Amino acid sequence: MALASRTSSRSPRPAIDLTVVASTWLTPQLVRVTLGGTGFTQFEDRPETDKYVKLMFTDADSLIVTRTYTVRRVDHEAQTLDIDFVVHGDDGLAGPWAAAAEPGATLRLMGPGGGYAPNPEASWYLYLGDLSAVPAIAAALEALPTDAVGVAYIEVDSDDTALALEAPAGVEVHWVVNTDHAPEALADRVRGMPWREGMVDVFAHGERESMKALRRALFEDRGLDRGQVSLSGYWARGRTEDRFQAEKREPIGQIL
Ligand SMILES: Cc1cc2nc3c(=O)[nH]c(=O)nc-3n(C[C@H](O)[C@H](O)[C@H](O)COP(=O)(O)OP(=O)(O)OC[C@H]3O[C@@H](n4cnc5c(N)ncnc54)[C@H](O)[C@@H]3O)c2cc1C
């Protein structure tokens, strides 16, 4: 995959060029690409656990397109950052690029932005998502205090996709195998789970239809307030990210 050779003139954020230092398969569907090099000094870290960057690629028509990815971990000592990519077949730009990435390759990115960090005032935490949200969920679980309590439900296509996540002893992590991609799989868990007392802090991100089902489960069935829920689609089945982002302006793309 060719890399972007120039930055988007519309973006006020500086683009940073990083070099692939290592590539590690975490599961057959998730590959971690570790990026570093001299460009790392320009990376301005943020405190949010879901911090994300825009990766820049060139498409078949030599146009620059961006793809959004969570920064899973920043290692300031080693001057590297990790991005965990879902490998979802031969379609797309970022997934296939990551599957083939080798040390020495370069990647241009912009950012980071960010929107969520665990609310220290919460009584408990509820984390919901699919494999694309595992980097953000894993970072949030690691940021929780050791006495935190809560539940994570993560939907995956198959058993071999699950991976061990570090979490406080009081936070259960459940992998929900959803082979048919039923949009209600996570919402059904939310409706059926034992509900704890006190204020819940929710982080829910993943495939768009699944997030729409969660919107109903969280706001209508569980009666939560907007302010205690971080909810958005990270991608939409059958859509490139460009189409997915464009559809946010249409009824089909609206979650909240
Ligand atoms: C804030 C934010 C953070 C994100 N963080 C991550 C992250 O850390 N890791 C990560 O892997 N993704 C993450 N995503 C999702 C990622 O941006 C999309 O999956 C993106 O579409 C992938 O680009 P692509 O070039 O591989 O595929 P595209 O060219 O966008 O799409 C090609 C085809 O692949 C399908 N497709 C795209 N993603 C998936 C998927 N996950 N599973 C199955 N099919 C898919 C599309 O529906 C389309 O049919 C994040 C998204 C957002 C908005």
Give the secondary structure arrangement, pairings included.
Elements: E1 15-27, E2 30-36, E3 52-58, E4 64-70, E5 73-75, E6 80-86, H1 94-100, E7 106-113, E8 124-130, H2 134-143, E9 149-156, E10 170-177, H3 185-192, E11 200-207, H4 208-221, E12 229-235, H5 241-246
Parallel strand pairs: 8-9, 8-11, 9-10, 11-12
Antiparallel strand pairs: 1-2, 1-7, 2-6, 3-4, 3-7, 5-6
Number of domains: 2
CATH class of the largest domain: Alpha Beta
What is the percentage of strand-forming residues?
35-45%
Tertiary shape: globular
Low-pLDDT windows of residues:
1-11
Structural commentary:
The structure is a single chain. The chain contains 5 helices and 12 strands. With 256 residues, the protein is of the alpha/beta class. The chain folds into 2 domains: 99 residues, Translation factors (Elongation Factor Tu (Ef-tu), domain 3); 130 residues, 3-Layer(aba) Sandwich (Rossmann fold). The strands form 2 sheets. A 7-stranded antiparallel sheet has the order 4-3-7-1-2-6-5. A 5-stranded parallel sheet has the order 10-9-8-11-12, with helices on both faces. The longest helix is centred in the last third of the chain and has 14 residues. It is globular. It starts with 14 loop residues before the first strand and ends in a 10-residue tail after the last helix. 38% of the residues are buried. Flavin-adenine dinucleotide binds next to strand 4, strand 6, helix 1 and strand 12.
